[in-house]
Task: structure prediction
Amino acid sequence: MEITGFGGLLTAVVFLPLAGAIIIALFVRGDRNVRVFAGALTLAELALSIIVFVQFDTGTPGYQLVDKFEDWIPVDTFPVQYFLAVDGLSAPMVLLTGLLGMVSVFASWNVRDRVREYFVWLLILQTAVMGVFTALDFFMFFLFWELELVPMFFLISIWGSGRKEYSAMKFLIFTILGGAFMLVGILALFFSTDTFDMTAMPAAIQTAGLVMPVGLIFALFFLAFAIKLPIWPLHTWLPDAHTDAPTAVSVMLAGVLLKMGGYGMIRISAGMFPEVISDVAWLIVTAGVINVLYGALVTLRQTDLKRLIAFSSVSHMGFVLIGVSSVVGVGGVVSPVGLTGASLQMFTHGTITGLLFLLVGYMYEKAHTRYIADLGGLATRMPILASALVIAGLASLGLPGTSGFVSEITVFLGTFEVWSWPTALAAFGIVLTAGYILWLLQRTLFGPQKERFADIGDATFLEAVPIAALVIAVLAVGIYPAFISDVFTAGVEPITQSIQQIARAGP
Amino acid sequence: MTNQDLYILSPELGLAGLALVLILLDLVIERKQVLPIVAVVGLAIPLGFSIALWFDLEGLGLEDSILVNTLEVDKFALFFKFLIIGVTALIVLASTDYVKRFSRFRAEYYSLVLFSAAGMMLLASAIDLITIYVALELTALPIAALAAFNRDARSAESAMKFLILSAISSAFLLYGMVMVYGFTGSTSLGDIAARLGEVGLSPETPFGSHALLFGIVLIIAGAGFKLASFPFHMWAPDVYEGSPTPITAFLSVASKAAGFAVVLRVFYMAFDIPIVSVEWSAIFAVLSALSMSVGNLIAIRQDNIKRLLAYSTIAHAGYLLVGVAAIASRSADGDSSGPSGVLFYLGGYAATNLAAFTVVIAISERIGSDAIDDFAGMAKRSPYLAGVLGFSMISLIGVPPTVGFVTKVYIFGSAVETNLEWLAIVGVINSVVSAYYYLRVVKVMYLSPAPSMEPIGPGLPLRLAVLVAFAGTAFFGLYPTPLLKLAIAAAAGLVA
Result:
């Protein structure tokens, strides 16, 4: 089936932030003007991504809103095309990126150092992430995947705190290493199938003679995603990068950059290598359980607010892995519930952890400490921040009515039948999560008021805007999950179906 | 010599003529600033002839010429002529500020650059071992003189080193050529290939025969010097550091490109027979892996920007050798993007490295230092120059949206295509290592406080050179198609 067309909508979504960055770099002068311009731009970007999400029709199978231009590099031996489109898997990720992109710009309102440069990089970062989620040509996918490195490096190393240069370099080296392996994987697929087209790839891999063992190609890709997600023991860059990054960058990093790993795992590892992923599903579920439990245990021991949330991300990303591992199926039946759960978990974790990092960032700006032992009794002084933190915390531990509950229950529902014991073990992670979240809330918000916080202020109106946006997102998914889960289900169904066909055809 | 012969040689003759005109002009004019203008504008002559040849390739009548079997004019040769003319033009522009320090010899400086460039262009066309040797010497001798132009201890050491090592490597090369000539009875690459097909090489012996083994290994050693690839790279850091910076740039881009032209010609034309090519391809693969690893690892420890770029060019010689090693007979479907990958990479690398070097020339001329730490705060002091240098560093790592990214993907692709996956993996790991030291330069410029806020203010010609090189890096990064198509067309001429 040939996919063609050029609607232009996705092109606008992907390149609007980049265009804004160029305009800021060249024309906009004055810190205030830069902020206002970037804010307006990301609001427009959010509106565009909502349009993408609304226009996406779950009833129509396959890719939609196609922007395809085949003659980008029209060389027979290297046929790269310009190809953007969304399916059920990527449409919600576009929405998430648009939302967090807006949030991160508003969260940066208090940046005072080298303001113009800062917003330029932040906007380029958003283009890169949008590109990863919408590109359907492997060359483009990889281009956007790598493009994200440069802005991240500058954002952490210039505007970060603590050991920022070390953390930035560590982040960069880890990510670029993953990307390097993925490049070999992409090239191997290209020379096996003679195409970079990701939509044609699943079928082409089945029929083509591969230049490398299929397991090796799978591993090359998987390693890149494992570093990005991250999977224990490749996670060590994450706490450093999160802790030392400025607030808005932590929001982007936790909210959408980690999801590039999960997205790649579902779209590429599961979507293109159905046999291999079924064979190694036991490994993935093991890694998932380790991530959940190890992450939660380490989180319990943290004393720095940002580091705490960073490690909780490791734990929560474990649920994505567990959801993905359900693809092995039971008795030849592969249900899409597990993969839907994994994608939902990505979405909800993006909003919840984005919110957590945002709130912690604001609290740090006001209290000038992230050290939990120094905080306490903040609830009466900053009611808006405190109640938002309670909502985010409860969502993070999976309270019904919040988005965290929806995604985790879906993961468990999809996976329990397939991997009973590991899932049960992972469910214990919820208990640990409840432990560290409630303990965190108690130590920071409640308890006796401290003298030094006597005249601390609450969130200003401008700060309340991104908080409100994310709180709404968290509650909306919690109350009416179908609007997002149906889209995800439409996206992952073709993948589970192809795995099921192979399972049936097999011995 | 007929007119046809002259036409075939016209780019080289034009360039050499231009060099002579410059020296003569120097005698009669007082305003020496005219010289670089004459040089750059004059480059339009060889460029024009090259373009004319590109369109006349069909009816050139090379068979009737006295140059038959000595020089080949094909798209491959012309690709290199374009590249070398472009690089030379930028080097001349970039030199205008620098030459002020040796004011008495400006004309000699420019004309030596042009003579060397003429040698390089001849190299790209040469298809006879003797012609190759002569062209190589024509390339190298002016550079030895140019390296000494600063006339201080450093510069003299660098020139001496270059001269002696270049002579030794030429000796290796000659010895290798003699072996090959003794075995095949011909110095013409086409004849050598034909003879190798006839003599019946024994599959048990490496390279089919011991004489050939000796000959080819020695040729690789001699050529390795030109490419500055491991283990023949020792001269590069010292020579690069001591030479005038524009000459360093010339060496690292044009000289390397000419070296690869020779390697591709000799190995793809003369030694293309599978029983031999499997062997040398393995040697090049190993040299490639070692060259990039050694170059990148040593570069980490450098604190002088010229030395850092020297080791970086050693590493890039390694990446380029990937394409040389990726011969078609290794791949499943019998074609290889190796040679086109080398040309494509050379084009992108020339733009990127010149962007880096032109900025380094501008900055170190102003601050009087090549130490990386002295580039501190350059982002504040001179945001555009720092931006270009940062961008070229990113391109050297191979991160989008730069030309370095596309060329890296393409050349590592040729390794995967020809069952050299291990080499591709070594290559990508190396590009991770290289990120560390390239980004250190960026970090110093963007994160360290500036000791002074004085702008750098390079002269107009130098600014033009920076702009052109940067534009190439950025444009081909976003739309590589023209360069890639040119490279593929040129490489097709080589294999056919």
